[in-house]
Task: structure prediction
Amino acid sequence: MTPDQHSAANAAPETGPRGGKPAGSIKDRIIEALMELAAEREWDDFGLTDVATRAGVSLSEFRDAFPSKGAVLAGFARKIDHVVLQQAGEALADEAPRERVFDVLMRRLDALAPYKLGLQGIMESVRREPLSGAALNGVEANSMRFMLAAAGVDLSGNMAPLKLQGMVLAWGRVLDVWFEDDDAGQARTMAALDKELSRGETWVARLDDLDRLLSPLRIMGRAMMDARRRSRDRKPKMRSTLPDDLDSGTPA
Result:
């Protein structure tokens, strides 16, 4: 699906809060409460008790569901993953890989739309904290892995981690544009995503070239390690040349 075609796609699924106490499981209620509070306050300005109160659950129930606010955020990412993955199917089968990735990521933005304000605040806060940023990076990497799989793009090989990290960084840049894009047609966002996918294709091609260049070195390295291992296995064990009584430690 091209950027122009997406504007005619179905409306975003109803994944956001409708007002009042959220319905659903305890986990869903906690996730909704956290995202509501994130839209109203700075990330560091509310705690576990605030989330539990908004969700209408006890701290004990909260603890059974999630160990921290960060874990709730990871649960939110999984929830969005499920929404997108349930929509992805045979409709994408006839499209080129790039168009499939574009379509899946636009569906992800549609699913995120009800939480846009809260997510923007979270991203701005977490990026100022290295440890939190690293944790969020891991969450995003898992989500991107499944988004690519939904588009029929399987990351494998020696360069897979670098490709996945590149995807995470590209997605972050798209989100930055999306946060400021108030146009219903999301023209700026789609243009940004299209640009990042073009850049990503170039990045992947370069990594594949690098992988091919490094392949002989990896083969040589493995051969040297195997030869060294076989040499150690063939080396006879050293036998003691001490008299039996000294070797055993027995006094004369």
